[in-house]
Specification:
The strands form five sheets. Strands 12, 13, 14, 15, 16, 20 and 21 form a seven-stranded mixed sheet that branches. Strands 3-4-10-5-6 form a five-stranded mixed sheet, covered by helices on one side. The chain contains seven helices and 21 strands. The chain has a single domain, classed as lpxc deacetylase, domain 2 (lpxc deacetylase, domain 1), CATH 3.30.1700. The chain is globular. The protein binds zinc ion. Zinc ion binds next to helix 1 and helix 5.
Length: 321
């Protein structure tokens, strides 16, 4: 189920089918628990339905002060290997990107996430478990219209050979297109494009696991990272080989995971994006830079709801009739 309701729009004497998107939340709370990939600490998340215009909010129940951490790009404080959010009071939550990707990928707008630790559970390193939990709980369509960010002008960020950009498209959803190149034959060159539709995300992207290199494992652990990392929650590459005995879930699992990460990172713009995302060798740092550039350039986008879009289309048709 999605937040799409069909409505008939009468304009200039013709009846056309327009679709109005409403905000969504979950029907019932869902629970999951597991270790954080970097902290190695176990945490339990209670994911609860929330009122319209709440957004996705994390609440650290292990801290004394009860202050929420809103999932938004300007609260991102760490992008080294995952995305960490920190609020003005200093409360933070790490590795939110796979959870947020599932929220954006399934079309969820409003949730309150109570968590009793500093990092979301990594589960199997993908968004599959979160999508399954959301699917089982069911989505509830709410009374307020969903707002979209409509890209009006291209916004681009670069770092050496890496780049990412958002540009306008006539579509009401986000289309993602990315390319990665790695020396290892296990990855090589991979490229993929997709329209961010709820059913497509759950089917084609959600299963793709995070990946890392065996040569980095000791360094990461010395830095206090990847303490919870294992072959249970990441694809590990050694030379030209995939170490995991079960192998890959698809030959291009790596680029699929890059799209998954981008969906989670772009969700931090504050609303679903209507536009085209393109990237070469993207990562969390690049994606967050892009979101911040977008928010810093208010002339390059506008807020839009379907009611406004339908009204504009109707008045354009009436004017041309
Ligand atoms: Zn990831």
């Amino acid at each position: 189920m999605t937040g799409l309701l069909g409505v008939y729009v009468v304009s200039a004497g013709r009846v056309g089918l327009g679709r109005v998107e409403y905000q969504t939340t979950l029907n019932t709370p869902v629970i999951c628990a597991g270790v954080g990939v970097h902290s190695g600490e176990r945490a339990r998340m209670v994911i609860k339905p929330a009122a319209v215009n709440t957004g996705i909010r994390f609440r650290r129940t292990d801290l004394e002060s009860e202050c929420d951490i809103l999932a938004r790009g300007d609260h991102v404080t760490e992008v080294q290997l995952g995305t960490t959010l920190t609020n003005d009071e200093g409360a933070s939550i790490a590795t939110v990107e796979h959870f947020l990707a599932a929220c954006a990928g399934m079309g969820l707008d409003n949730l309150l996430v109570e968590i009793d630790g500093p990092e979301t559970p990594i589960m199997d390193g993908s968004s599959a478990v979160f999508c399954e939990l959301f699917h089982n709980a069911g989505l509830q369509i709410q009374t307020a219209l969903r707002r979209r960010i409509r890209i009006l002008d291209t916004v681009e960020v670069r770092d050496g050979i890496k780049w990412a950009r958002l540009s306008p498209s006539a579509d009401n959803v986000l289309t993602l297109s990315a390319k990665i190149e790695f020396e290892t034959k296990a990855i090589g060159t991979q490229q993929m494009s997709m329209r961010l539709m709820p059913g497509l995300f759950a089917r084609d992207i959600a299963f793709a696991r995070t990946f890392g290199f065996a040569r980095d494992v000791e360094t990461l652990k010395a830095m206090g990272l990847a303490r919870g990392g294992s072959l249970e929650n990441a694809v590990v590459i050694d030379g030209d080989e995939v170490v995991n005995p079960e192998g890959l879930r698809s030959d291009d699992e790596f680029i699929r995971h890059k799209l998954l990460d981008a969906v989670g990172d772009l969700m931090l713009a504050g609303a679903p994006i209507a536009g085209l995302y393109e990237a070469r060798q993207p990562g969390h740092a690049m994606n967050n830079k892009l979101v911040r550039a977008l928010l810093d350039q208010p002339d390059s986008w506008c807020w839009e709801t379907d009611a406004e879009a339908i009204e504009t289309a109707a008045s354009m048709e009436a004017a041309s009739a």
